[in-house]
Amino acid sequence: xxxxxxxxxxxxxxxxxxxxxxxxxxxxxxxxxxxxxxxxxxxxxxxxxxxxxxxxxxxxxxxxxxxxxxxxxxxxxxxxxxxxxxxxxxxxxxxxxxxxxxxxxxxxxxxxxxxxxxxxxxxxxxxxx
Length: 129
Fold this sequence. Notes:
By secondary structure, this protein is mainly α. The protein has helices at 2-15, 32-44, 46-49, 74-83, 103-119. The chain has a single domain (31-129), classed as Cytochrome c-like domain (Cytochrome Bc1 Complex, Chain D, domain 2), CATH 1.10.760. It is built from 5 helices and no strands. The chain is globular and about 35 Å long.
């Protein structure tokens, strides 16, 4: 089991947040909040960030170490939905603001993303520049 988890983590790191190659994502049993977030994610985010935040040719995977809570804190996700994001870790262009996504939506989407991240070995790492 450990070997399989390490293999997924290594393949996910190779795919990278800007590669356009969807990564393999282990989906755990989800909390009620994260289950709500899954529905909101599928409605608002999956068209670019792929199923289970695995990435696509339109947007980066959010299940990648670059999006760990120490580098992209929860507030970054709220700002991304409200104001958009300049291209920086990827080659997909800028992410436009998502004014139809409410703070409540972002809260549940974030619960979903963080549970997926933890299930895939992505945990808080302090960001050092």
